[in-house]
Write a structure and sequence with these properties.
Layout (H helix, E strand, L loop, with lengths): L1 H13 L16 E9 L4 E10 L4 E6 L12 E5 L4 E6 L4 E6 L14 E9 L7 E12 L5 E9 L4 E7 L4 E10 L36
Antiparallel strand pairs: 1-2, 1-11, 2-3, 3-4, 4-5, 5-6, 7-8, 8-9, 9-10, 10-11
Amino acid sequence: MFAVVSLFVLVCLTAKSHADHHHHPCHSPNMTGFMTVMSLKGEVKAYGSFTYDSMGKKLRFRSNESHPVNTSLGLDLLMFFEEGIFYEIDSKNQSCEKKKLHCTMHPLDIPDDAKFYTTVHTGSPSIEGEGLKVSIWTGTFTDSKGWKGHYSMSVTMGCLPISTFYFTETTTFLMSIMEVETEIKDPDLLVVPSICHGQPLEETPEGTVNSFLHEFM
């Protein structure tokens, strides 16, 4: 993990001379894959599968299923970013909670207001199959309750996210994406399950911020 942080710092220190201000954010395609959420102390907060509908702006994330990790959270989230709502699903206990989204930030798409920082090669650019060219995008975000943070996102030239660092006043963590396929393999995962039908929108306790990122804080 120290090596990852060191690489990130090195990129930040050397990137300015390579920045191209003519770049504009791209948007990720539909995706199915796996995601790891890790603190910079090395704690695995979650590991799980995701399905992402880039056009409909829908995300299903299910952690601690196929590859359980002792320290990871057990989550099943279905998020509708355009509607501003999400569901916390507990299939084992056949329960569901419907909640309001206060922040639509998530690691599977570059925000429209992201700023291009630099393009770098990871590994070796001169040896076939041993390098990857990525662009780095940075920005800040504020939710509807005034919570502020910063991010740095690494994306392939084909607009597939690789990893995103998130920084806030209280925590820093890394989300890594792997084994991505550019398709929705199971569309039913993005449909509201029957146990959630008719659920009222829960009131948000004062001081609570609901977002994909806040599930890991």
